[in-house]
Amino acid sequence: MIKATGAELSGHRCQFTVWAPFRKSVDVEFEAPDHKAVHLEKDKYGYWSKEVANIMAGTKYRFILDGIKPYPDPASKAQPDGVHSWSAVVDEHNYVWGDSTWNGVALKDLIIYEIHIGTFTDEGTFEAAILKLDHLLELGINAIEVMPVAQFPGSRNWGYDGVYPYAVQNSYGGGTGLKTFVDACHQKNIAVILDVVYNHMGPEGNYLAEYGPYFTGKYSTPWGKALNFDDAYSDHVKAYFLRNALMWLDDYHIDGLRLDAVHSIIDHSAYHFLKELRQSIDELQIKNRRRYFLIAESELNDVRILEPYEKGGYGLDAQWTDDFHHAVHALATGEKDGYYQDYGKINHLAKAFRQGFVYDGEYSSFRKKTVGNSPQSMASSRFIVCIQNHDQIGNRMLGERVAGLVSFEMLKLMAGIMLVSPYVPMLFMGEEYGENHPFQYFIHHGDSDLAEAVRKGRSKAFKALKSKRKMPDPQAKETYNHSKLKWNFHQHPEQRALFTYYQYLISLRKQGLFSVFFKRHLDTEVHEQQKLLMVR
Amino acid sequence: MIKATGAELSGHRCQFTVWAPFRKSVDVEFEAPDHKAVHLEKDKYGYWSKEVANIMAGTKYRFILDGIKPYPDPASKAQPDGVHSWSAVVDEHNYVWGDSTWNGVALKDLIIYEIHIGTFTDEGTFEAAILKLDHLLELGINAIEVMPVAQFPGSRNWGYDGVYPYAVQNSYGGGTGLKTFVDACHQKNIAVILDVVYNHMGPEGNYLAEYGPYFTGKYSTPWGKALNFDDAYSDHVKAYFLRNALMWLDDYHIDGLRLDAVHSIIDHSAYHFLKELRQSIDELQIKNRRRYFLIAESELNDVRILEPYEKGGYGLDAQWTDDFHHAVHALATGEKDGYYQDYGKINHLAKAFRQGFVYDGEYSSFRKKTVGNSPQSMASSRFIVCIQNHDQIGNRMLGERVAGLVSFEMLKLMAGIMLVSPYVPMLFMGEEYGENHPFQYFIHHGDSDLAEAVRKGRSKAFKALKSKRKMPDPQAKETYNHSKLKWNFHQHPEQRALFTYYQYLISLRKQGLFSVFFKRHLDTEVHEQQKLLMVR
Predict the structure, then answer these.
(1) Which of these CATH numbers, 2.60.40.10, 1.10.540.10, 2.60.450.10, 2.20.28.10, describes A6-88?
(2) Contact A371 B269 (CB under 8 A)
(3) CB contact under 8 A, B269 and A370
(4) Is A461 a residue whose pLDDT tops 90?
């Protein structure tokens, strides 16, 4: 019923397959003028396919629907000319891997470092990122979490506007760039976690709806119509994302996936997409004799995501716990805006420290509803914590990192709280030396109306702040450049000291000095007046 | 945080409470001209309340929002003049119950009989229905399932257009009528299951949105915007329905609730409404030393609804299994339209007989997606089966009962399949004697545009049938009258014989003769060619 879609190269023959159940004809056409378009054949479930001769890696193609308009392949593995143009055939087997001795890192031992390829280095490429791996080794990092790399519009984007889940962003160095990066990481004993977005598609260059019912009007999300995970034809949409996940793990040697906003993957069916995803990966684990992580971003505080299958859970390995971040941030900065109004007491931090979720069935004033259930059955390694990440920084109007908000001493205290905590810590790139440039929100849309709409939307969102500062223009190249790491911390004594401090705490953590906190029932003593939390 | 809403009478003082978080003022006004309007006071969660003196049972009142427009009480316990008019104060404690010796019936022993109060008798009242109880006793019935009785527009409606969940339909005899009916049933050792609708509100007389965010734009259902079970303010909406459920069980002595279309109760939170409902009822059970059933109508075929809490389930007692009905119906009639296309083989029936669900993770051609998960861990008493019900009959253009579709011999075979099955059987009123009048779809809207819209909608739905027969007019009184039981089966030998046959099978079932089929692993042997199913 389900077919693998995309362009599957085998020697010089290529199998083109695409799902378009309501179309009357689908042809594949090629950029090369001497290469004639070929008519695909439809099966009963709406998959169109045909094997075509004389194709090689790099051959540019697109699909013509109903003989009228050409569109890129939804399962394109390369968009060398951007989101609106030709797809390119990729030879998945021509990369020679050098990571055969790589053995992975256990979930509980991870020290994660989140990076955005575009702003991690001046060059903004995988190749340049590889040159920074020794810095991360020196710091003590053993896992890198890469913000989404699926092809997005333009060359400047956080990655959450991706529209080709199977294609690696051309400006980052494409698929081969990513493979080379993962290979290099593994050779330095660093795991790679990839951030993938299965809850929405970006607003520009998204042609999925031309092909089939990838979206459903039953549910709406902050990005419009929801992806179709439980309506008619959803088996095919689920398969599209499932196969994508398996591709990263199998073909790109990725060690784990971070699933963006799983609360917006709305699947009301008897077999939830997340469980099916985890079970598909279980099978791949057996085949490859490897362990792959699935880490969820979830605002639900619902342990069902983590519970084992026999307890009705989806069996994911871990999830981010925003409560921990918010509890630390609200105490450290005194901020009370937006969601921080739900935090700010030592008691919140104590609860976060003790069990991960603060909202475990409690009423949230900000969300105006009861949120969460009890995480007490979960080992502490099931929660990822941070004191800043791309969202918490970049969703501020000016994109200030924590280093720009609190004193140096407070900065160290925050880092300490995270690194001695029972949870898996995650740093955001530059955090280890207190990078003082911001990480701002940036886009690079080809559609100027869209760019203006984003600009206006953000401007409106920040109006309540009544800030005297001007909101950086998301579309402007300076905003992007300004967000790049500066890497000049060796010239700043305080930044150097902070790096050494992080290095030291990480090394103590690795030696197991804080594992005393990893027990099931942590004792916390709260002194609200003195703003003191004692843990034992 | 949550307050009980409605008018709570205590002596001659009455506490009026209503939730209207965004209103600037709420007054309660009274029909009696000498009774002055009273200003209610708001708490921080948006509940307005005030105790008012000189109120008695029957006092008519309504709420004025923002000093402008009056609306009935969303938690009104009586709408003596219909859905658009005054609410009336009810004294919940003035009924003297005579059912103190009633002990209930175990779920596995239930023989359910579904009735629609309006068409069960000529009079269409609870009072008249009581006179038929001896007939049901003679038949062997020990539980009656009453189609929804919440106040609906006009006097002719299946009940799924109800708009006052706390008020019993005035034309049926109101709250006292229902209590008298339940009391009479209990005194004859018959349990009462009430059909309640928590997934949508009817289209006429629904003023909930005037009061607060009872609906959310996040999800849409076949009835429009979904009720708000997980968005901001949802705690209050959940409480509104939870308290309603408890009212039926506690104040009306109802033995169990049949929850309409739970697949349209969309709650993505960490604490699903259905689990919260079952847990609230668990508490009531302890208080009242009684056992209450919760039975779901669900098209999801998802055992999560039935699984115990410790397996991540919602803990409901049972659910309807439409697969059983469809498997029997498709075989018996040869029909292939709509959802019947997914059935029609002996093998479907065998599977339904063996495990309840036919679609247990299989692809459905009609729904164009994979449906269900495995029910094998469930005892057979967790599934309710029928060979016809209000929906399967009334959603046909002409509302034909099975007796009007198949031969007399086939009718007996169908009844036999249901009554020897391992599941809890449910008859639809009149089925026991093969009533040959139809049960059609009827409404009685005050709004003629709405009546016309319903007419057109149904007409369009049945257009594909290309029937030469005319669709009955849902709004016409004849359609309603035509749907009433005729009760003249004693004059028809075949009908009399059928009644005796049902009586006999029910009595054998009660003697435990078919309990050989109640085991976990039933053997079925399928002979597709001979259209033969052997069970052992």
Answers:
(1) 2.60.40.10
(2) yes
(3) yes
(4) no
